Amino acid sequence: MTEQNNTQQPETQFAIQRIYTKDVSFETNNVPEIFTKQWQPDMNLELNSSSQILNEGVYEVALRVTVTVKQQEEIVYICEVTQAGIFSLIGFDESQVQHCVGSYCPNILFPYAREVISSLVNKGSFPQVNLEPVNFEALYMNYIQQQAEAESTETLQ
Length: 157
Hints:
The chain is α+β, with helices and mostly antiparallel strands. Helices cover 32% and strands 39% of the residues. It has a single domain, classed as Bacterial Protein-export protein SecB (Roll). It has 2 helices and 4 strands; from the N terminus they run ββββαα. The chain is globular and about 60 Å long. It holds the Pfam family SecB.
């Protein structure tokens, strides 16, 4: 006779319910004059993510990607996209949920945001923008480390 182990680990489930573009902005300056100048741009990329609980185990994660292109200190265009998704995270503990919404979900959303930015820049008649992949895992770990350092600094004061 075999003994059954009734202490099973709770099953975890991760699912993408929906991915959508939440907000889009494309602003150009000095058009059409900028098209007559030699193209030597300087590009700046900003990333921000946020999350909110929609229901128990259901989260909206939003990734805002802002590309600012300057030429000789003059802003040529600003392209900003907020790509969002609704994700089910069932059976995860709090630290796993935070890791998912802070790293894993933005990693899923980034290719969608990158495609929207590329399309908008192309429609603005500017040279193609191919954003490099982003290591959201490293960014999240860096954020966690900064939070821990800030908490230890507050404790010492």
